[in-house]
Amino acid sequence: MKKTLIILAHPDLTRSMANKKLKEEAEKNTDIIVHDIYKEYPNGKIDLEKELNLIKETGTLILQFPMQWFNCPSLLKEWIDTVFMAAHFTESGEKILANKKIGLAVTTGAPKEVYEGKLEGILAPFVLSIDYLNAKNIPIFSVHGVMPGKISETEIEENAKKYVEYLKNNIE
Question: Which domain holds residue 99?
Answer without folding.
Answer: 3-170
